[in-house]
């Protein structure tokens, strides 16, 4: 599977909160995305940031999205990241591999580990 360029919209909620949104209009996307119900519904992640730090709420569904989001935040001067996973579904954790500091509930961590093979596929 080759890298594709996400069409993420960055929505500024306030001076320190960004929403990264993608989905719904997927006609021009690769076929593997056209069939994904999550992309038809739309995906979003959020960043709460100040100075060179950000808390990221969920890390999107595809690695390309997570890379794009992180690159955008780095372009704003952000160097230190903490990720909060709201739950274990792939559309919330796929970009976790890009980050060192990840926070989630004990239940979420257990479910990620229990479903590791299914998540990777």
Describe, in plain words, how this protein is organized in 3D.
- The protein has 121 residues and is an alpha/beta fold.
- It contains 6 helices and 6 strands; from the N terminus they run E-E-H-H-E-E-H-E-H-E-H-H.
- The protein has helices spanning 31-34, 37-41, 63-75, 90-93, 106-114, 116-120, and strands spanning 9-14, 17-22, 43-50, 53-57, 80-84, 102-103.
- It has a 6-stranded mixed sheet.
- The longest helix is centred in the middle third of the chain and has 13 residues, at 63-75.
- The protein starts with 8 loop residues before the first strand and ends with a helix.
- The mean pLDDT is 86.
Label the overall shape: globular
Number of helices: 6
Low-confidence stretches: none
Average pLDDT figure: 86
CA-based gyration radius: 14 Å
């Amino acid at each position: 599977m080759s890298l594709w360029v996400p069409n993420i919209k960055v929505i500024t909620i306030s001076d320190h909160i960004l929403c990264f949104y993608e989905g719904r209009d997927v006609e021009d996307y690769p076929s593997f995305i056209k069939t994904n119900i999550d992309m038809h519904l739309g995906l979003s992640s959020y960043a709460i940031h100040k100075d060179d730090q950000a808390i990221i709420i969920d890390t999107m569904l595809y690695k390309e999205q997570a890379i794009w989001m992180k690159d955008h935040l780095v372009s704003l001067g952000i160097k230190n990241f903490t990720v909060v996973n709201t739950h274990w579904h792939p559309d919330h954790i796929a970009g976790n591999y890009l980050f060192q500091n990840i926070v989630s509930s004990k239940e979420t961590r257990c479910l990620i580990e229990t479903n590791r093979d299914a998540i990777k596929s």
